[in-house]
Structure prediction request, 482 residues.
Amino acid sequence: MKSSSISILLPILSLSGLLAAERADPKSPAATESQLSEAAKPKSYYRAPKSYSTTRDPDVPKYARPGDELGFEFLKDASWLDFGIDYRLRSEYRDDDIRRATAGLDEPFLHRTRAYLGIHDVLDPFRFAFELQDSRRYNGNYEFDNRDWNEFEMIRMQAELYFDEMLAADPLGNKRPVSLRYGIQNFEFLDRRLLGNNQWRNTANTFLGFRGAIGQESNDWQLDLLAVQPIEREIYDWDEAIDERWIYGLIGHWRGWSDDITLEPFYLALDQRQTAVAADRTVHSPGVRVYGPFGESGFDYDASYIHQFGSDGTKNINARGGTTEIGYSFDHDWKPRLSAFYGYASGDKDPTDNETNRFERFYGFGRPWSANDYIVFENIKTPKLRLEATPNEKLRMDMGYSWYSLASGRDRFNGADNAIDPTGFSGTGIGHEFDIRARWKVSKKVELIAGYAHFVAGDFTRNAVRPDDTDFAYLEFNLTVF
Prediction:
């Protein structure tokens, strides 16, 4: 086992770095009319989606700061540097977790420490970024797995060629850069359900390979390209890329009409060579995502559709998946938003025929499919209702109710250790779940999160897994050093 000394020291070091830079307010009395006019102009075509938990994490992690904002005199001119450290501790209470082979109580403490260093502009076109993560679990009653434990791993170690003058600027004057990265990377695309870094989980999704981009998030259009290998998380040894597996991607973004609609057409592919335990497999996944507001009505939408085809050994692949969410934001000081969601991913209809219909979920997140983290984007049908509110600038709250069933009762339930009844006699009902969460921003550097979820088992879960209902409660402490 690697030494835990750094994991202990980093939270202590987080007591430093309490300075923050103030910026001028264009609405101040001293601002001129021309300044006010300039400030009112949109600077970006990007509009964040209002749909629940689909906003992508930024390329530079939220906890990192420019060097000239870190509060150190010797870095006062280091705007070319991004640096940050953060620490997260989550205490969990899980009763009869169906992800475990046996029922029982589990009360783990999950520790995660991250550090980021990025260098840009000063050496252009060469840029570099490094991110270290240490993930551990203590006090658990079950064996370690790579969801919770991954000691001192580089989750980002990338070199980049970055050209910001190669193409003409967009109509708003934003530069349209061209870039190419290589190395260990973590990233998020689309609504995070196919490619996400899984911030909730104690360990991260990482990839080794190439990522290219034409344009940036502020542009009217942008194109991202991927050719990467997923990295297998090892609990104690160094992580390694999966040699037999590649992911390719071509992801477009059209934001020219973003006040009404943002379009994200895409193509993803998974190419897996034959191994001792798996056959050759090629999955083609064209799809499209659209989101935006319904004018000034208060309603908003977010929808996606993916069709999948290819081959799985001697079988043909024919699968599909998609999501739809409609929300309404009320005119109230608490900014409440009520939303209805439906998600679908096909499952294999008949294990004995020459076609597989199980949807390939790639490397997306598990939440918010389920607050218990039971559901993934595979063999699932789930309607949801959710209410979000922001009582004040420091407090955010949300709660929801979800119903889960298998798209095919003859295919597996991934969230319960791949439980399956090939006969289909166990039914399709996974269960239903109530969840509630509160997030309190104690200060600029400290956040506390508390949550609870109760799951009631459906017929499939009772028959093929366990008849237990489950309870999950957690308290999370997040600390950003700078």
Observations:
- DSSP finds three helices and 22 strands in the chain.
- The longest helix spans residues 5-13.
- The domain at 5-158+294-480 is CATH 2.40.160 (Porin).
- The helical segments are 5-13, 33-40, 459-465.
